[in-house]
Design brief:
Number of domains: 4
Radius of gyration: 24 Å
Active site: 88 (proton donor), 162 (proton acceptor)
Strand content: 5-15%
CATH superfamily of the largest domain: NAD(P)-binding Rossmann-like Domain
Family: Belongs to the malic enzymes family.
Largest sheet: 7 strands, mixed
CATH topology of the largest domain: Rossmann fold
Binding site for a divalent metal cation: 233-234, 257
Cofactor: Mg(2+); Mn(2+)
Keywords: Metal-binding, NAD
Amino acid sequence: MNDILANPFTNKGTAFTEEERQQYGLVGRLPAKVETIAEQSTRVLAALHELPTNYLKHLSLMDLYEENRTLFFYTVIHNITELLPILYTPTVADGIMNFSRDFKTPRGAAYLNVNEPERIKEALLAASEGLDDIKMMVITDGEGILGIGDWGVQRAWITTGKLAVYTAASGINPKSILPVSIDAGTDRQELIDSPYYLGLKQPRLRGDDYLAYIDQFVEVAKEAFPNVLFHWEDFGRDHATQILDRYRYEICTFNDDIQGTGVMMNAAIAAACQVMGESLENQRVLIFGAGSAGIGIADQITNELQLKGMSFDEAKQNIYCFDRLGLVRQNEEGNMTSGKVRYARSLEEFPEPLMDLSEAIDIIQPSILVGCSGQPGMFTQEVIEKMCQYNERPAILPISNPTLLNEAQAYEVIEWSKGKALCVTGSPSDPVEYEGTTFTIGQANNALLYPGLGLGIVIAQAKHVTDKMLNAAAHGIASLQDLSYLGAPILPHVSKLRQASKLVAKAVIEAAIEEGMAQVEIQDIDAAIDEAIWQAEY
């Protein structure tokens, strides 16, 4: 009976009533006062506010996660604007880097070891014991954590953070999500040399052996959890692309780093086009950074254009990708990823290398400039001014994370463009005052997307995640904004996460039904969404 206090899903702490304390053998084990969940949450916040750093606040929140899941989610949901950046990005990066030192509990994750493929099923079943029907897995091998790179097993906390955002933003039952950490080794020497490192001290597994392990994992997980959504997070560029290409039409799968960032940019660009009074078909998009995120953005834009009636060959003419070698051109094909090959410009069009971004803007005259390079300061005053020279309201979207890696800061974009630019950043940005107008800066936060996408997929029991479903998700996000006034944010504020998630879920379900991907019959989509939302209450 007393185990009720040790189980985070049943523990209510001081909220157990007198009758419950008698019933469950808790008399004498709790202070006398019986609190409401609101009173408990007030105490939690007061304690958090006493802590000097966001990382200490993060650790305190996650201790609560392990002690009382309902109170944790109640507190986060009712204080989402304040707590989201503490719970997840950017503060979770500190947790990842200090994981081996600060590890106390597994936080509900399944820890898989590539040296033990025969134990995959055992590990998944053990980690999911006591949970409900698993409808989603958030999976990482931690090779490509945005902004901080390869951290081996220490990236496990990215998956529990993602789970928490899923539930806080969309209301997916936390007992139906399983975080999964695949320890494939690490190429970070400081971890291998550390006496405290808790993961495998070996170079990363790669190549056919790695893919064979992933194949086995997928097969075992499908058998253990039918109709589960595989959400892949923070894999390295090559593996992320290989896994998505390999399984996209075999299982229900989604890669947040490739597809999620692309969908968010599609939403931002759709809103920007609305403000411009222009159609996407007439825009030139220059993507500065041609890694997995940049190619994912290009893919979502071309997907949007194809749904508007263009062929892929026509659509890709609107896209210009820039990497460390300059404009991506066909003569680099031997050293390029398959994604870069798709968007490489012809040598007939660009016979000479184009290395300078400012010069490229003069030649290409893009109306939309996206930054996902992780190279700070690359959108200089000259670059911003040239964007304004060729466009009345250019969209300038420096979305690299964290803030110190932004290609430009929001205040620079607004000031250098004299208030003309439509700006979205990857990290939270303060409002910018310019000539009497307050410019509220939208954040390309994938939390506006993936919780609603996941909720819609789970409700529809979708067979696959299609381009049309992703496109519908983008327009679900864009539909939330009032863009009628100067300075309006292009993307919704995180305070609107619940509203955004519902809109995205509805759009995704409608698209799944239309495409024949839904495996259940849904008569009333709004009612199905309301019924599926888990409530953080005792």
